[in-house]
Amino acid sequence: MNPWNTVPSADYERHMSHETVGQLAALNEITLEKVEQRYPQTVAVYGACTGNGFAHFVDTQTVYAVDINPAYLATCYDRYDPILNNLVLIQADINHDDVLIPPDSIDLIICHLFLEYVDLDRAFASFRQILRRGGLLNVVLQRSNDTGWVSNTGVTTLRPVAAIANEVTDETLRQQASPDLRFEGSQTYRMPNGKSLVSYDFINGEVTQSTSEESTDFEWPEW
Predict the structure, then answer these.
(1) pLDDT surpasses 50 at 210
(2) Please, what is the angle between helix 9-16 and helix 70-80, to 10°?
(3) Overall pTM surpassing 0.85 (yes/no)
(4) pLDDT of amino acid 22
(5) Alpha-carbon distances of 200 from 45, 81, 97, 129, 212, rounded to whole Å
(6) Domain 3-219 coded CATH 3.40.50.150
(7) pLDDT for 127-139, tens place per residue?
(8) DSSP string, 117-159
């Protein structure tokens, strides 16, 4: 069984929102930033978990929540179906299952702390299939910076996920995206525990006049 199916949603949220981790708040803000940049009508969230950031999709026509854990999706549905126009749950293990979203239909893909746990070839094949021309793929990757993959917050149920985690390098990510998903820029967020989150933007087939080739560091405030 995939370790993510054994982590209770309460444990996941308690760990991710811990004052020494702070990742839920950071990812929420990154999602808001992408929504305000694109005002998407269709969104697909890979690794939706319990729906962090979904409150920002209230003006979106359709939101697809993709996750391996049915309990996470159930929590996401209970919280956000009442306020969203059309929330579609997709339980799938991307390493083995097709993600059943109409081709060329998505304006914005949110992919936060997801690629470290999955087959990159299959993930990017899915992105390419559903992202319409000019659509935005936002990827957030964790950099552990030699602090260990899972921080010690007293939540022990997340420890097994470290066994299936692989840190995705900047070079590997760009190789997977090239040539049709064009790199638009990245920003680094430094977290309270010494880790970093790096947010990358890729546009499907759209050429821009200027492309940021270097990350901009951002010191995330401590909670």
Answers:
(1) no
(2) 70
(3) yes
(4) 87
(5) 15, 28, 25, 19, 10
(6) yes
(7) 999 999 999 999 9
(8) GS-HHHHHHHHHHHEEEEEEEEEEEEE-TTS-SS--SS--TTG
